[in-house]
Amino acid sequence: MHPGFWVNLASSLYRVWRDRVRRAVLVTAVLSLAALVLAAGPPYFSTASQPQTFSDPVIALELVRDLEEVRLILSDVPSQDRETMRIKTYIDFGFIASYSGLSIALALLLARRRGWRMAAAIVGGICGVAAGLFDVFENRAILEILDVPLRNTTLNMLNAIRGASLAKWTLAGVAICALLLPFIRVKKT
User: Fold this and answer.
1) CB 26 within 8 A of CB 16
2) What is the arithmetic mean of pLDDT over 116-127?
3) Is 62 in contact with 136 (CB distance < 8 Å)?
4) Is residue 57 reached through a cis peptide bond, with omega within 30 degrees of 0 on the bond before it?
5) Residues ≥6 apart with Cβ < 8 Å to 75
6) pTM, two decimal places
7) Is residue 116 predicted with pLDDT exceeding 90?
8) How far apart are CA 75 and CA 81, in angstroms?
9) φ and ψ at residue 117, rounded to 5 degrees
10) What are the tens digits of pLDDT across the range 31-64?
């Protein structure tokens, strides 16, 4: 690589690091990526886990509709996949903290601008934190079913997971759109 690349990179990182809000964006973005990498690593789900709706057992459980889907994803108590889900859920709490912090930091960074960009920043920050809150509700509902045998798992338990998950994904989508919108430039002709 060209030596000027490293100089430019160091200079850019220094400018980012001097500004508290930009530093918060950088740190929370790195923490979010680290949490995602950690969640993608071991332990892994066994070959017994056969979700029918999504290939990822975590997402399949987040959107579970009935006991048969739970059986296909986690098997009955006790199972290795239930313990794997427990570990992945605990890791997710760290991811929630980091992406909620990232949405706040990005909102603060974008709120420095005027007009509609400030409104987009406020909407993005609020929706990002609200998504994190529903993600916590979802994780608590998941942890609640992990020690419960299939025969004792109720539809209300599954609806608690699915409802919180749908709210989380909707709010996360709105937050992402609101926080990315100020970066989109429309070319005037």
Assistant:
1) yes
2) 93
3) no
4) no
5) 48, 49, 81, 82
6) 0.88
7) no
8) 7
9) -65, -35
10) 999 999 999 999 999 888 788 778 899 999 999 9
Q: What is the pLDDT of residue 31?
A: 96
- Hey, what are 146's tokens? 């992990």
Which token pair is 59?
């997402």
Find tokens 């929370």 and name the residue. 28
- What is the average pLDDT across 170-176? 97
User: Which CB contacts under 8 angstroms, 24+ apart, belong to 161-167?
Assistant: 161/61, 161/62, 161/64, 162/62, 162/63, 162/64, 162/65, 164/134, 164/135, 164/137, 164/138, 165/62, 165/63, 165/134, 165/138, 166/63, 167/130, 167/131, 167/134
Amino acid at 104: I
**Paired tokens of 175:** 């937050």
In Å, how far are 78, 126, 175 from 136, measured between CA atoms? 24, 15, 17
Q: At what angle do helices 80-110 and 155-180 cross, to 10 degrees?
A: 30
40/179 Cα distance (integer angstroms) = 25
> In angstroms, how far is CA 66 from the centroid of its own chain?
24
Structural tokens at position 32: 């979010």
Residue/partner pairs of 65-69 with CB below 8 Å, 24 or more apart: 65/158, 65/162, 66/155, 66/158, 67/150, 67/153, 67/158
CA angle 8, 10, 14 (to 5 degrees): 115
